[in-house]
Amino acid sequence: MRLPRLLRQLMHRRIVMLSAFVLIVIAVLALGAPWFASADPNDTAVLDRLKGPSAEHLLGTDELGRDMYSRIVHGARYSLTIAALTALGSVIAGTALGLVAGFFRRLDAPLMRVVDAMMSFPDILLAIALVAILGPSLLNVVLALVLVYTPRVARVVRASTLVVRELLFVEAVRALGVRTSRILWRHILPNLLSPILVQVSFIFAYAILAEAGLSFLGVGVPPEIPTWGTMVAGSQQYADKAFWVVLFPGLAIIFTALSLQILGDGVRDLLDPKLKKTL
Amino acid sequence: MSTDAPLIEVRNLKRYFGDTDKPVRAVDDVSFAIRTGETLGLVGESGSGKTTIGRTVLRLIERTDGQVLYRGDDLGVLSAERMRRLRSKLQIIFQDPYASLNPKMRISAILDEALSTHGLAKGRRKERIAELLDLVGLRAEHASRFPHEFSGGQRQRIGIARALAVEPEFIVADEPLSALDVSIQAQVINLLADLRERLNLTMLFISHDLDVVEYLCDRVVVLYLGRVMEVAPTAELFERPLHPYTQALLAASPKPDPLIVSTAVPLKGDIPSPMAPPSGCVFRTRCPHAIEACAQAVPTLDEVAAGHQVACIRKELFMMKAAA
Amino acid sequence: MSAPRLTVTGLSTCFPTEDGLVRSVADVSFSIAPGKTTALVGESGSGKSVTSLTLMRLLPKTARAQVEGQARFVTRAGREVDLLTLPDAQMRRLRGNELAMIFQEPMTSLNPVFTVGEQIAESVRLHKGLNRAAALAHAKRMLDLVEIPAAAQRLHEYPHQLSGGMRQRVMIALAMACDPTLLIADEPTTALDVTIQAQILVLMRRLQAETGMSILFITHNLGVVAHHADDVVVLYAGRVVEAAPVRPLFATPAHPYTQGLLACLPGKAHAVGQPRPKRLFAIRGQVSSPLSPPPGCAFEPRCDQAIPACAQAVPPLVTTGDLRQARCIRVPSVERTAA
Questions:
Q1: Does A278 touch chain B if contact means CB atoms closer than 8 Å?
Q2: Given its phi and psi angles, is residue A65 left (phi above 0), alpha (psi -120 to 50 degrees) or beta?
Q3: What's the predicted TM-score (pTM) here?
Q4: Which of its termini does chain C have fewer beta carbons within 10 Å around, N or C?
Q5: What is the pLDDT of residues B10-39, one digit of tens each?
Q6: Chains in contact with C, counting 3 or more C-beta pairs less than 8 Å apart as contact
Q7: C16 phi, psi to nearest 5 deg
């Protein structure tokens, strides 16, 4: 009963629906990259380098003659995968951390000091340092970003846990003799889904931007892997001659991140008052 | 088969909150006993400590001092696991029927959880759930619904069914009627009385509504600022209240009959803060009969008649009045 | 007999919701004489709070309420106005002035960031045009009036520094500051302890005797009604089901709902000294959802005295005795039958 209502209300906000639509398009393109962009993204054709948008190359070619459209669509796969793995990883780690800190009073202080320490580093610097230590690779970038975002999720989850823990029905199941592990899993966690969901969408957006930033700085994924960030990084020196080589990957980054943020905002606005109502 | 030893015994229970210098004395040296099959009423206003006592007796809150004995065993020294298993015998019904049920769980899941926590009704959960719902006046098909689909009175019934699912001997009823409409209160009162008789339950009934307490309880403990003022069998307390606070409480509860006119003057002043309780007798600041000696020492709870105890150094005044 | 201070005729409030039109108040009529207290009694869904909010025009705009009927109020100057159709500006001049309201939760009705004195003074400055010093002096007089000890000091305290009983007294002081002729008290003592409730009720009675104001007292507590109301209006599912002066209502309740309500009180279960009955009388069932009201009498599904005709149409409110009315086809009417 609740879900259809949520969807109905979501549909009333056009900009949120637009963002969702944009994201779906991007996701579909990414998933079906080989069908939607038949040209090989790594196919170099030096004679065709830095050609502007045309019928043959919808978004032009880059400095090595590779088709921009194809690269962007294939690049979506990498960028979205990195962002998705980051969001997933930091949400799982952050939730575990926040849940334990919020529920067990004695563990709260020590765990939160660790979180505070992690949060006192600027995101990008922390990510750069971690990638420098671990070495540039797709997985290491994900790992570094997970480490950066976990504390943020942990804080939000802890705050919500502190509230849910005091709710009467939690006390009621405690009084029944229900085991703590079950209380956490069955009673506390499901009531944290709303803030967690919101965090997922924001971290997804941040991760897209962070990966792009890291790759641009040369400390992200290795330049051979065509993510949107590496595209901008690799082609930046030709930007004055052929603006499309950085414009289009840049736009892809912006639109994806923006749509995620708008969707996240929209979902949060709808879930927050509902959270108060259902609780 | 009732034994002489009480089922529940509370000895010198204390529960303080906060600062060790100036703590909130929610419960300050409270003692009472409940026999098997008995319903003891706990009456008081804000700050009386009645709700805290209910929670502390079940060890949902840890006590600061004193003992809570169940069949002679001190609950406070039991291991967490042992206490957890014992909880099937000691249950609670809450005041707020809206907040006490997890809104995301169906009734069947809520009751099933109670049963499986203590390994009850293995292999016949569904039937048992139907039995429990029937016990509280609901129907089996209600099991598949969510709490928000029910009214306050029905949710309270579900809460009662959940408490009964684990087959308790003792139930703390923490203001179970306060959030309900008057016409629904009567239904739930009848339900509690029925269940109590059928299942031979022992109850600690916490309430601020004296009329309900008079109807349901065998004995009553009157609390003020965390201390016991008076204890007596119900009829005795209502006919011969010996503590000035009990008298004021009774006088202040308006009887639903315009012809019964109360001439009592309402108590002056506010209930003092539990952080700064008055010295000596905590009631003396509002007591119309207070004298200097009341501030010197905390009055002891003395037995003045069978089962009737009063904590007041001026009790003779009222005993003489009553006798006259 | 002087004209009633407030005469409500055919008041009706409906709210359009996603799930349909909710009729919170339907065809409610009653009057309050000057200097008297009329109690509006009802349980959940009776519409008693919505009635008072409608009269005070305090329903939120987002509720998009559809209001019908009349609420004739006689001002201090003797003018008759309809509260429901008064222009906003004039209504604002009446509210807090001649028409005062106190609510159940004093903590949420008082502004936490202003001192108690400032809040009372603000009302006085607004309606009586006094300057700051005079308004504050008047505020102190009000605090004295409601028997708040150390009033001069309390003037400068914030709501959170006061106890529940004190805050309610401040609410009353705020309400009395401009000498109202009608006070609407919506469950003013429900959230208070019994001994504090007794103080507040005695205070309200005293103020009424001193100022001659009328009180519309909204409550579900029949004990309070028995001792602090002159007339009683019983609401059920948004309609008036019975109206009578207090003593006759308690002595011989006419409507089955009123009878049931009185019979199910444990306080009335038995006289002192007699053994308590084995089973309390209880009205079976619960009030129907406002989205699916029964076709006939709203109480019929729960009524032990219902006959088939009861489910057919909503019974009219008829006069059943001296100043008594009931909405039940089983209660004989004393009206001369019209054609």
A1: yes
A2: left
A3: 0.88
A4: C
A5: 999 999 998 788 899 999 999 999 999 999
A6: B
A7: -80, 125
